[in-house]
Amino acid sequence: MLPNLMDAKIRNKSEVKTYYDDYVIPPSVSEYGKGKKYFILTYGCQMNVHDSENIKAILEDMMFDEVSSMDEADLIVINTCAIRENAHNKVMGMLGRIKHLKETKKHNLITVFCGCMAQEEVIANKLKNDYKWVDIVFGTHNIHKLPLYLAKVIDSHKQDIEVYSIEGNIYENIPVKRDSKYKAWVNIMLGCDKFCTYCIVPYTRGKQRSRMPEDIILEVNSLVNSGYKEVTLLGQNVNAYGKDLDINYNLANLLVDVAKTGIDRIRFVTSHPWDFTDEMIDVISKFDNIMPYIHLPIQSGSDRILKLMGRKYTRDEYITLFNKIKEMIPNVSISTDIIVGFPGESDADFEETLDIVKLLKYDLAYTFIYSPREGTPAAKMEDLTPMEVKKKRLATLNSLVNHYALYNNKKYLGKTVMVMLEGHSDKENKLMGYTDTMKLVNVKASDDFIGEIVPVKITDVKTWSLEGELVDD
Ligand code: 5AD
Ligand code: SF4
């Protein structure tokens, strides 16, 4: 079954179904992985990383073991991202390497292509016509069916492409092998209905659908019982959580219920300014275990471009919300996403983006050059700005963004902050972790501290990280 962008765009009023027992392993593959190894490569956002955690557990349910080198693998999964052209290019380059392995391997290598790129018509067609050696292709809607596809391919020795361009359902009880023992990703909603004109996500991940609150709380409670200290609630637009449920329950209600589980740290991404209510800000400010860090993508500082992007807020509305968050949540840090070179962006529009960065002084900003995505409305807009100009704009923006990152970090110098130490730092003999405000800190400490939330005195600050020392209690 091949994907279709026209179908992927459809939003009916049809009810979202939650399936609790749709994950099954056919007997023919239940022990297929015994003695076999898998390697998984993941591109893209946290949601994709979390999908890979599901895929790993599914493969291990069939007795495969994970390896960290592609060369040793009997099965390779490539979990792809479609957000920008460079994510595409990386994947296509990697496919070349995998093809070589497939041709030179003595035994049979199984190759699996999944994720957001698989949801794209052009890519699925390319895989069908030019990459016949890729054995299994599935999209974002049917991860839990991997055992069925594996059984089919082993039986038929033919390529199997199963990508659904549907609005989507919710599948509970899919196993998960988490990358960390201390912090966990928890999906609270899938898909997106915002249809910003540049964005492929509403097409690749289907309509907005919220998980039932009780299923989320059950998951968080079980994480608490297993010793997890941090959860990040995931969704393309978490502030719209609950809008599609027929109960009166929103993100503020969910945050309160998750906070009451007693987990030490709660984070959530990504927030859309449009759906951010005062009630949510109030809840975030009241609970100590809801972290004072908000990722609030602005995308552009120009009202004209925001309108063309279909963002549904103005520059002034964004500034008002930003200031309200700063006022109501003490010590909050705010990061953002910015796109430069959107079709029709003039020098004056870009100046407005620079201007708002100067005004708001973000803790961090992820910046991108606009990348046309086939099938989205923006891809059809006239775009006369040369790439050289766009690159220059990006460089100018980045140096401003870096300036404010350092400016904000300097406020931490000499202060003692709580850091959750997660693992080894790139720096010799140091551990790394994050403050409540999501600042990366390198700390000299023994491995015994991994997984602990400890007081750290900040001794040095850089643009991207802080250096600190453990403080004795
Ligand atoms: N081109 C460039 N950047 C994009 N983003 C989303 N779609 C595109 C695109 N077509 C950026 C947005 C979004 C982030 C996840 O990626 O800034 O917030
Ligand atoms: Fe990439 Fe978006 Fe898909 Fe995440 S949801 S993997 S960012 S295209």
What can you tell me about this protein's structure?
The mean pLDDT is 96. The longest helix has 24 residues, at 387-410. The protein contains 13 helices and 21 strands. It folds into four domains: 5-162, 3-Layer(aba) Sandwich (Rossmann fold); 180-289, Transcription Regulator spoIIAA (2-Layer Sandwich), CATH 3.30.750; 292-410, Transcription Regulator spoIIAA (2-Layer Sandwich); 413-470, OB fold (Dihydrolipoamide Acetyltransferase, E2P) (Beta Barrel), CATH 2.40.50. Helix 8 runs parallel beside helix 9 (278-286) and helix 12 runs parallel beside helix 13. 33% of the residues lie in helices and 21% in strands. The strands form six sheets. A six-stranded parallel beta sheet has the order 3-2-4-5-6-7, sandwiched between helices. It has a five-stranded mixed β-barrel with strand order 17-18-19-21-20. The protein is an alpha/beta fold and 473 residues long. The chain is globular, with a radius of gyration of 23 Å. Bound molecules: 5'-deoxyadenosine and iron/sulfur cluster. Iron/sulfur cluster is lined by residues 44-45, 47-48, 81-83, 115-116, 200-201, 204-205.
